[in-house]
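Work Package 4 report. The design task specified in the project plan requires that, given a folded chain encoded as structure tokens, an amino acid be chosen for each position. We show below one input record used in the internal validation round.
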């Protein structure tokens, strides 16, 4: 059990630590669900970090220069909730009593935005660790950009606690390798080395030398042999804090379920309530009144007040400095505030390029590169990179340097071939208010799915740039050809999946991309050229901002509607022209973004896809899954798409192979018209006769 407290402060420390432990045990018990063991064992570690090292203001959880704490072991959420409560955040005992209940601030795993002080949603193991790397990167960038002699406006550290699970996940390796490479000395990871996971002892599946692994990654590695030794913890954290070349790992040996006579050091303490009787016994071990539940001693209540005062003082000092900074550097201060509020400079959109009509056209990945550079000139906090495919995703900012160790002003990021970490790191950068993008081939978005999902869950406006968007990439074949990816991403809540038809649609849509504050977007771009449509002939590209719009139309009610996205819109236009010649009244709807279209409402839906026109064909070089939502059932509408894994061949052979041709769209349109009993209007009969006679 605990060493005997020597001094008054020691006694208070133990009270605080035991309050964290007992609140956690009680909340899990009340919910009859949750993870008590790690909050119990890691309470002293978390307390030491928060009390001795972190600057934060509970009254303003978003204070820009606060230190960050990310609980990568998200299942131990009660550790965080208990801490937030006793350090003065707006998280009441009643909130804690509703742990894991409907609409509680204290969800099963910490959810960004639900309770103040949660820096990132965590739970999928490893994600928190990797996200913390992005936060550390953001700190380096912001400090380099904004700090001036005598004005250190940005100088925070990022702490993250993870467990065996986080360490086992490959993601932690990707992220740690990158952090070590970049020398992120402002980053401290604690590894809760308790040797227990769900299935039992880690010896079942984990025997690597974690310290050696991290030394290999260029990290500063320390060990603390006892999670209860506050002095050793403080010394190790102090060294980590002072370290100015490498990120720090502190491996802390702990006992899961510490203090529980029957469950300590067992996997039973991991993920189930201890049980009323076991809780009583454990409280007695802590010197706690076993009859008290959710008990916060007066001394801890006083500590709460003290932390509120401390936080206010810290932020007040910073605010005072910021006022002086703003006086000396008004432009920088203005930018700083813009970043914090996710605002854009006034009139910024005038930089968006307009592309001249061009039948040969250009790949949307290339036009995207031009647009990105145009915006990047005026918005220095637009930055990002790719997973080693920068040259082919066209995501370099031409006038910017690379973000490298000791070149923290760089805006071109080289994430390496680490897509999972790239997206998680980008989450951290965007949570830190940078407008960051992450780019790779669309097919490898699979590797990024977990952090991408977290972007959506957190409503974190990450910009995903996915190129090589279909079988149109050609010879690389099925391993590289995305098929089901559009359908899969469209199914993720809060994500705008944007597949523009040409350069001008894309340029128009970037207005939305840069201004949206509460959703990530995924731009889906071609490797191959697509024509830049003649907007004098067809509708203006701004229609794209509504998700879908009438690009070409016939006079009066159309007989058939052709709906396309991205590179297939040109096929719809080709078919439209041919059908027109045959007297068939077609309409082409370009539909770059389902979710934006869904936001428009009934009136607009009826305008674009009128209920009375059931003859519809969708054309998209990907899975047809989902398209019947817009084209109706088999007897009414037709879908053209790809339902296999593609083929390895030149694009010129691939598109015909999969029916992605103008002629096939025309044929499908006729079939659909026939199914709708509309194949022979008087006008088409006459037109056909005329054509025959020509
Ligand atoms: C990616 C992922 N896989 C699986 C899980 C399910 N899970 C939650 S906790 C856990 C065990 C974690 O062990 P450890 O990190 O050592 O935590 P401890 O039991 O020590 O608290 C697992 C497998 C998860 N949350 N995330
Ligand atoms: Mg463990």
């Amino acid at each position: 059990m605990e060493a005997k407290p020597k001094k008054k402060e020691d006694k208070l420390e133990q009270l605080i630590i035991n309050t964290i432990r007992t609140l956690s045990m009680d909340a899990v018990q009340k919910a009859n669900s949750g993870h008590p063991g790690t909050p119990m064992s890691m309470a002293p570690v978390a307390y030491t970090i928060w009390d001795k090292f972190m600057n934060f203001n509970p009254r303003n959880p978003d204070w820009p220069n606060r230190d960050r704490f990310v609980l990568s072991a998200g299942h131990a959420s009660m550790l965080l909730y208990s801490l937030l409560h006793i350090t003065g955040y707006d998280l009441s005992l009643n909130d804690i009593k509703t742990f894991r209940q409907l609409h509680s601030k204290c969800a099963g795993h910490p959810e960004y935005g639900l309770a103040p002080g949660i820096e990132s949603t965590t739970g999928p193991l490893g994600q928190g660790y990797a996200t913390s790397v992005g936060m550390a990167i953001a700190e380096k960038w912001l400090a380099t950009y904004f700090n001036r002699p005598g004005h250190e406006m940005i100088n925070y550290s990022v702490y993250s606690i993870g467990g065996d699970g986080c360490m086992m996940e490959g993601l932690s390796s990707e992220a740690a390798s990158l952090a070590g490479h970049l020398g992120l000395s402002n980053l401290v990871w604690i590894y809760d080395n308790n040797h227990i996971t769900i299935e039992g002892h880690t010896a079942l599946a984990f025997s690597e030398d974690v310290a050696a692994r991290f030394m290999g990654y260029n990290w500063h590695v320390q060990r603390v042999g006892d999670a209860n030794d506050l002095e050793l913890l403080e010394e190790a954290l102090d060294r980590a804090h002072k370290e100015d070349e490498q990120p720090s790992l502190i491996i802390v040996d702990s006992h899961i379920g510490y203090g529980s006579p029957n469950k300590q050091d067992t996997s039973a303490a991991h993920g189930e309530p201890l049980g009323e009787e076991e809780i009583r016994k454990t409280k007695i071990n802590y010197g706690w009144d076993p009859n008290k539940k959710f008990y916060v001693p007066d001394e801890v209540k006083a500590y709460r007040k003290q932390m509120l005062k401390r936080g206010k003082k810290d932020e007040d000092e910073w605010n005072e400095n910021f006022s002086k900074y703003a006086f000396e550097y008004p432009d920088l201060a203005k930018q700083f505030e813009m970043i914090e509020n996710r605002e854009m400079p006034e009139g910024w959109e005038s930089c968006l390029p307009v592309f001249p009509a061009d039948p040969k056209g250009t790949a949307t990945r290339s036009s995207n590169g031009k647009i990105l550079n145009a915006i990047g000139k005026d918005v220095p906090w637009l930055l990002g990179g790719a997973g080693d495919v920068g040259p082919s995703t066209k995501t370099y900012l031409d006038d910017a340097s690379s973000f490298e160790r000791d070149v923290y002003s760089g805006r071109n990021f080289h994430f390496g071939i680490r897509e999972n970490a790239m997206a998680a790191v980008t989450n951290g950068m965007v949570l830190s208010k940078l407008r960051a993008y992450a780019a790779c081939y669309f097919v490898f978005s699979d590797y990024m799915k977990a952090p991408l999902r977290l972007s959506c869950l957190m409503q974190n406006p990450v910009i995903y740039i996915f190129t090589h968007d279909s079988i149109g990439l050609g010879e690389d074949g099925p391993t590289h050809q995305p098929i089901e990816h559009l359908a899969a991403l469209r199914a993720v809540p809060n994500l705008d999946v944007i597949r523009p038809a040409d350069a001008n649609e894309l340029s128009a849509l970037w207005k939305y991309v840069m201004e949206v504050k509460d959703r990530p977007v995924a731009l889906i771009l071609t490797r191959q050229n697509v024509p830049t449509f003649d907007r004098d002939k067809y509708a203006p590209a701004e229609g794209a901002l509504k998700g879908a719009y009438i690009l070409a139309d016939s006079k009066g009610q159309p007989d058939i509607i052709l709906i396309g996205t991205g590179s297939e819109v040109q096929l719809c236009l080709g078919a439209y022209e041919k059908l027109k010649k045959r007297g068939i009244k077609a309409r082409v709807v370009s539909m770059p973004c389902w979710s934006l279209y869904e936001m428009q409402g009934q009136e607009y839906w009826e305008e674009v896809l009128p209920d009375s026109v059931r003859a519809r064909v969708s054309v998209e070089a990907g899975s047809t899954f989902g398209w019947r939502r817009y084209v109706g059932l088999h007897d009414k509408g037709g879908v053209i798409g790809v339902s296999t894994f593609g083929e390895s061949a030149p694009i010129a052979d691939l598109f015909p192979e999969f029916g992605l041709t103008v002629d096939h769209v025309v044929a499908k349109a006729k079939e659909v018209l026939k199914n709708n009993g509309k194949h022979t209007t008087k006008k088409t009969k006459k037109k056909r006769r005329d054509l025959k006679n020509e």
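Residues 158 and 496 are 30 Å apart (CA to CA). Validation will be extended to a larger panel in the next phase.
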